[in-house]
């Protein structure tokens, strides 16, 4: 039972449970009275919150979409920063980062369903790999402005982050980065299917 008093375990549980909070679902239900799981793409992320709420309240949609994006990123940032503040080993910090993303994508509060993980993933990466994340955000912003397809823009940003990480940190153990990237890619498979079928909607 000693593991129950292990500080690392406490951080791992906190990362998973905090990462699992479905802010998009909660904000849309509380402020707009809609269930994003039953509308649009069914995602709890900022893009679907924006798309679904926009049908009835465009002004509120932008606010809730921005709030969802910020909160999903901040929950990832918070747990990793806390691990750093408490002097956790870098391997523990990476495990905290991975579990925050897993929590968002496979939330314990939603019967292990969840979001796509992009905002939370970028949040943890911003703390662990700030320069590659900054590069990824530039690629995402340019792609989003020109392509206007959220899923494709996110994956291009993710690809840029992984490549930048390998190029700028060649000696680093990249398994956590690759694992997080795999989770995000896996969660976007339905988007890719819709994209190939010409059914993936652009963000207006």
Radius of gyration, CA atoms, in whole angstroms: 17 Å
- What's the total count of β strands? 0
Global mean pLDDT: 92
Global geometry = globular
Q: Beta-strand level of the residues, as a percent range?
A: under 5%
Please identify the oligomeric state.
single chain
What is this structure's SSE topology?
Layout: H1 7-19, H2 23-32, H3 46-54, H4 58-85, H5 90-105, H6 118-128, H7 130-146, H8 150-168, H9 175-187, H10 189-196
Helix pairs in contact: 1-4, 1-5, 2-4, 3-4, 4-5, 4-6, 5-6, 5-9, 6-7, 7-8, 8-9
Could you explain the architecture of this structure?
The protein has helices at residues 7-19, 23-32, 46-54, 58-85, 90-105, 118-128, 130-146, 150-168, 175-187, 189-196. With 204 residues, the protein is an all-alpha fold.
